[in-house]
Amino acid sequence: GEVCTMINKKYSEFLPSMQSAEDLVSQVEELASNIDLLRAGIENEVQRDLNVAVAEFTELKQQLERDTLVLSILKKLQEFDTAIKEYNTALLEKKYVAAAQHLKEAHSSLKMLKSRKGFELKILKALGTELTVQTQNMLYHLGEEWQKLAVWKLPPSKESSSLESVMHSELHLHTVPSKEEEIAGPPVASVLEAFAVLGELHTKLKIFGQLLLKYILKPLISYPSLQPFTEEQSDVFILRFKSEEPSLDHSSPMEVFDKIKLVFEVLHKYLLNVSLEQPAEDGKDCRVTLAELLGEMIWGELSDCLIQNCLVNSIPTNSSKLEQYIEVIKSTEEFETALKTMQFLKGDTTDLLKYARNVNSHFANKKCQDVIVAARNLMTSEIHNTVKISPDSCVALPKLPDPGAGHLKAQKTSGLLHSDTAHLGNETKLSQYTFSLPMCRISSSVEKLMELAYQTLVEATASTDQCCIQLFYSVRNIFQLFYDVVPTYHKENLQKLPQLAAIHHNNCMYIAHHLLTLGHQFRYRLTSILCDGAATFVDLVPAFRRLGMECFLAQMRVQKGEILERLSSARNFSNMDDEENYCAANKAIRQVLHQLKRLGKVWQDVLPVNVYCKAMGTLLNTALSEIVTRIAALEDISTEDADRLYSLCRTMVEEGPQVFTPLPEDDKNKKYQEEVPVYVEKWMTFKELMIILQANLQEIVDQWADGKGPLAAEFSAAEVKSLIRALFQNTERRAAALAKIK
C-alpha cells in the first residue's frame, strides 16, 4: 500500500511535466511548419519582387546617366554655338583678340564632343567644317589687316640682287598710333595677338623675318654705300635706303652695327614692342614680346652674315693694327647690349661676340691663309719674268725688331741678312763669299716669294706666341708648297724650254741659299717658343738643291740626245770622197753648232758663269767625243777622205769655242772662249785626231814617242794602230811604224 502511494505521487508529478513537454513539441512542430510556409512564400514571391525592383533601379540609374550625358552634350553644343555667335559679333566689331578667343573656345568644345565614346553624332562633322571655315575666314581678315599694317614695296623679282634693285626696297608701317585710335582700325597689337591665339603668328613672323633679312638687313651688311633712311608721316612710318659714296670697299663693323641697330630701333618702336600670351611648357601662360620671337627666328642667320661679310673683313692683316681691334670688340658688345634691351636677343655671349673676341686666332688664321694664297699666286705666275741678282743683293725687308725691345730676349742679332757676311756661333769670320750667290737671273716671282717669307717671319716675331708659331709654320708651308707645286704646274715648259729649266735651277739654288740662314736671324724670338732648334729651315736645303739640279740635268739629257741624233745622220763619216756623204756630214756638224749657239744664247746672262761653262763644255764634249769615236772606227780612209774629215774637224775646233757666250758683253766672253780646253774633256783628243789625219807615218811615230808623247796621252796603242791601218797602204814602212806603237 505504501509503495503504491509513492508511485502515484511520482506519477502525478510526472504527468504535468510530460504534458508540458508535449506542448512544447507541438509548438515547435507548428513553428517549423510556419517557417517552411514562410520560406516557400519568400522563395516564391518576395524574391521575385526584389529582382524586379533591382532591375528597375539599374534601369533608372542608366536612364539618369544617359540624360546627364545628353544634357552635357547639349550644353557643349550650346557653348559651341554661343562661341561662334560671339565670335561673329566680335569679328564684325574688329575685336580680333576676343574673336580669336571665342574661336578657340568653340574649338575646345568641339574637341570635348569628339572625345565622347558611343556618341558619334553626324552633326559633329558639320560643326568641324563650320569651325574650319570660320577659322580660315578669320585668318583671311587678319591677313588683310596685317598686309595693311606692314606693306613691303619690293623690286621686281626678275631683277638680280644688285645694288640698283636693292635701292627700290621699302617697308611702310601703318602702325603710327593716331589720335582717334578707335575709328582708325585695330592697333597692330590686337592683330598679332589674334594670330598668336590661332597659332599662326609663327608663320606670319617667319615670312616677315625672311623679307627683312633679304631686302633690308643683308643688303646693309653687303653694300657699304647703303644708308637706312626713315621718315614718319601722319599715318605711316617708312623705312628705305639712300646711297652714299662709301669710303672703303668694306664698311667697318661699327658702321654696320649702327645701321642694323637703327633698323631694329624703328621696328621696335613701331611694330615689335607688343607683348603676347604664349602657352608655356607647364600649361601656364607667359608673356613674350614680338621682338623676342622675331629675334629667335632671324638672329642665327643675321649673325652668320655679320661674321662672314663684316667681321671677317675687319680682322687686321698685320699685328700693329691688332691693338685697335679693341674698338671692334667694344662696339660688338654695345650692339648686343642694345639688341638685348629691345629684347631681340636673350642669353649671354653669342657667336658674334665670341668671334670678335677671338680676334688673335682669326688674325693668325687669316694671315696664314693670305700668305699661302699670295705664295701660290707667285708660284703659278710666269717663270720667265726675271730679275738679276748679284753676290751683294739682299732681300728688301723692313728693319728687324731690336731684340731688346718688347718681349724679345735681349741678345745681339745681326740686322738684315746681307748675303755677303755671316757670323757663326764661334765668331770665326768666313770669307765674304761663303754665303754669297753668283750673279745670275731668277724669276721675279721667286724674289717676291722670298720677300713674303721674310716679311711673314718679321710679323711672326712681333706677334703673340700662338700666332708666332702659326706664322712660322706657314712660312715653312710656303717652301713645301713650292717644292710640290712648281715642278708639276710648270712641268711641260720645264721639259721643253731650256731657258726655263735654267731659271728654275737658279730659283731653287736661290731658295736653298736663303734657307741656310733664314731661321738664323729670327732665332732669338722663335726658339723661345718653338721647341729646341725647331726654328730652322736648313733641313729643306738639300731637297731644293736636288730639285734644281734634277730639272737642269733632265734638260741636259734632252740636249745631248738631240746632238747625238743630229750626228747620226753624218753617215758614220765614211767615204767622204762621195759628195753626197760629205754634204750629209757637213750638214750634221753645222746643225750641232747651230744648236749649241742657240743654247749659248738662251742661257746667256741667265746661268751663273761657272754653271754655264760646265754645261756648254759638257755638250760640246758630247759632240767631239762622238765624232772621234766614229772616225777612229773607220777601216779605210783615202787621202781625199782624210782631207775632208780634217776640214770638218777644223770647223768644230774653230767655231766650237764661239758658242761660249756666258755674258751679254762680247769682249768679256773672249776669256771663256780661250778656256774651252778646261771645260771640254775631249778637246786635246780631238786636236790629236786632226794631227793624225794630216801627218805622215814618221810624224805619227814621233807624236807617240814610245808611249810618252801627246798622242799617247789621248789614244790607246790599239786605236792608233787601227788609224794607221786605215790611213796608209800596207807597206814595209807601215809595218815598221806599227811595230813602234806599243
Automatic annotation (TrEMBL):
Q: Which GO terms describe its biological process?
A: cell division; endoplasmic reticulum to Golgi vesicle-mediated transport; mitotic spindle assembly checkpoint signaling; protein transport
Key word Coiled coil present in the record? yes
Top-level taxon of the source organism = Eukaryota
For this protein, the record's InterPro entries field holds: Zw10/DSL1_C_sf (IPR046362), ZW10_C (IPR048343), ZW10_C_2 (IPR055148), Zw10_middle (IPR048344), Zw10_N (IPR009361)
Record-annotated Centromere/kinetochore protein zw10 N-terminal domain positions: 2-84
Localisation per UniProt entry: Chromosome, Centromere, Kinetochore; Cytoplasm, Cytoskeleton, Spindle; Endoplasmic reticulum membrane
Q: What is this entry's stated membrane topology?
A: Peripheral membrane protein
Show where the Centromere/kinetochore protein zw10 C-terminal domain sits.
435-565
Q: Which residues cross the membrane?
A: none
Q: Which Pfam families match?
A: ZW10_C (PF20666), ZW10_C2 (PF22766), Zw10_middle (PF20665), Zw10_N (PF06248)
Task: Give coiled-coil spans as residue ranges.
Answer: none
Q: Could you tell me which residue ranges the Centromere/kinetochore protein zw10 middle domain spans?
A: 142-379
- Which protein are we looking at? Centromere/kinetochore protein zw10 homolog
According to its UniProt entry, this protein's organism is Oreotrochilus melanogaster
Gene expressing this chain: Zw10
